[in-house]
Design a protein that fits this description.
Elements: H1 20-29, H2 38-44, H3 50-57, H4 61-78, H5 82-94, H6 97-106, H7 116-120, E1 122-132, E2 139-148, H8 152-161, H9 177-190
Helix pairs in contact: 1-2, 2-3, 5-8
């Protein structure tokens, strides 16, 4: 079996050369507790001035390459692509709480009567049974509360993790940062 320069099987995604500290930084970036937050990852990795340097650390070519390499591995492992995510986002967007409630009411709360997409969109179903009235007129009442999930944020996090959603902002302009700061100071001095 032939191997590439990183002693990996031919055809494997090559690993960028990272020192131990940068490898720990990338490991922390993918930690579920950090949830792809660059500053939190830098703090967890032990950088004392994480607030100041996280941006620079994550713009280093070898760090970006390692993140992209891991994202590619995850996409292949879980067979997740943009189309998969879009289908689920569309299912969430198309889910109608009214339709779900109507089906549940007509079928005595039987979840099996819902489509897969309708069940996917649910985050909570709570049932409460109580007695209404007194004496001979008392009757059992079954109350059901249904909530549709806000899974969109989870899907956006998934897209970020897999590199399918880039939330980078490009700022173009002729005014430098120093000029902007000075203009802000001038406005403050004038009381604006």
């Amino acid at each position: 079996m032939s191997r590439n320069a990183f002693n990996e099987p031919a055809g494997a995604v090559p690993k960028p050369r990272l020192n131990d500290r940068l490898r720990r930084l990338v490991d922390c970036y993918f930690d579920p507790a950090v949830n792809l937050n660059e500053t939190k990852a830098a703090k967890m990795a032990g950088y004392k001035t994480a607030d100041k340097y996280a941006f620079k650390l994550f713009r280093r070519p070898e760090v970006r390459e390692e993140i992209e390499r891991r994202q590619e591995i995850s996409r292949k492992k879980f067979e997740v692509d943009e189309e998969w995510v879009i289908r689920r986002v569309m299912a969430l967007a198309d889910a109608s709480l009214g339709d779900i409630k109507l089906i549940l009411d007509q079928n005595d709360g039987d979840l099996s009567k819902l489509t897969h997409e309708q069940r996917y969109s649910l985050s909570e179903i709570a049932e409460e049974v109580y007695v209404e009235g007194r004496g001979e007129g008392a009757r059992d009442v079954k109350k059901q509360r249904v909530k549709v999930a806000d899974k969109l944020n989870a899907l956006i996090a998934l897209m970020r993790r897999l590199g399918l959603f880039k939330d980078e902002v490009t700022v173009k302009g002729e005014v430098s940062l120093i000029d902007r700061i000075q203009a802000g100071r001038n406005r403050l001095a004038r009381g604006e």
